[in-house]
Amino acid sequence: MAIMALNPLARVPKPHLHFSLSIPHRSSSSFSRQSLLNPSRRRRAASFMASASLYHKELAAAKRAASLAARLCQAVQKAILISDVQSKADKSPVTVADYGSQAVVSLVLKMELPSESFSLVAEEDSGDLRNDGGQDTLKRITKLVNDTLSMDGTYNITVSEEDVLAAIDSGKSEGGPSGQHWVLDPIDGTKGFLRGDQYAIALALLDEGKVVLGVLACPNLPLGSIGNPDKDTSQNQTGCLFSAKIGCGTDMQLLNGSTANRIHVTSIENPADASIFESYEAAHSQHDLSSSIAQKLGVRAPPVRIDSQAKYGALARGDGAIYLRFPRPGYREKIWDHAAGCIVVSEAGGVATDAAGNDLDFSKGRYLDLDTGIVVTNKKLMPSLLNAVQHALKEQIQNAALL
């Protein structure tokens, strides 16, 4: 990798910078002198200050990496051609944007956070690109990566094809319960990306098996509400960046630069007033099971079906109240499909569990071992939701036995 006078900590302001990596901080006035006289408030203030100081650099680097990867993906989506699509062994579509996004995130994290113990658990590897017929695609990816890294003049770096291959392959880590591991889905919702619909660049950090921060870059998600016509949508802008850090809440801002705002899940308590998010693709989740759960809850609104972890972001800001994901039997969930989304929702006041109500465990490697499916909602709705889920699953088993 040819790097000339690279100092990732040096920042030269650029008037054409299109996205902001400033991390909003809580004003010191939030903890008044009077508040600090109260011992319990003083302890909460101290806890907040301690949490705010942790992972500060890591979150800034994650926001920068995901934002740059999103810019690459946007450029590809605008001019997508059938030749952009390759096939993996499992026949799922992979685009040059998948590879380019993973390479950009890997390179940026390594430059912003130099470490000999860098570990990345990610979806793609370079096997197809190294095979005969992959050379042209690799050239395109390398050009995209270099164009993206040079976008705002911050990185004085030119990467080679071998650098790109190495960056992609840095995602082969197995993760686990010890140390720190970045978790990346370079394009979550590839089919949505190919259709021109929703997708997300999802990046999270595990520390000793726990998700401690997460970023969702959602280039096609409107700033206004999705799936909720009663919510104000006057800000008709597109492209959202969600970020969350353990103990510090969840923020949302525009991808192309804006002040970040704190967001929260909906406070709806009556299941009948809830709306449900689920996967757009029927192959990704059992829509019939979700429908049965909705009926048992008395949900009146039709389901909102969108691709990717953009659902987590939309739920975190209160667009909907429930997210259901029930893959077909035999499917194993990958940690990169949920790590970033889970902390974005949980720090916004929500809860994510498996169908039995167990916390999601990201410490066991590249896969989530869980009971049947994933359910996400606010704390008030979760008991009734889990009850409906268990009844629907029991009914499904009984119906299957009769066939």
From TrEMBL:
One BP term from GO: phosphatidylinositol phosphate biosynthetic process
Show the Pfam families listed in the entry: Inositol_P
Q: Name one GO molecular function term.
A: metal ion binding
Q: Which CDD domains match?
A: PAP_phosphatase (cd01517)
> Which catalysed reactions does the entry list for this protein?
adenosine 2',5'-bisphosphate + H2O = AMP + phosphate; 3'-phosphoadenylyl sulfate + H2O = adenosine 5'-phosphosulfate + phosphate; adenosine 3',5'-bisphosphate + H2O = AMP + phosphate
**Looking at its record, which EC class is this enzyme?**
hydrolase
Q: Would you say which domain of life the source belongs to? A: Eukaryota
Give UniProt keywords alphabetically.
Hydrolase, Magnesium, Metal-binding
> What is the protein name stated in its UniProt record?
3'(2'),5'-bisphosphate nucleotidase
Q: Which PANTHER family match?
A: 3'(2'),5'-BISPHOSPHATE NUCLEOTIDASE, PHOSPHATASE
Q: Which family does it belong to?
A: Belongs to the inositol monophosphatase superfamily.
Which residues bind Mg(2+) per the record?
A: E123, D185, I187, D188, D337
EC number annotated for this UniProt entry? 3.1.3.7
State the needed cofactors, names only: Mg(2+)
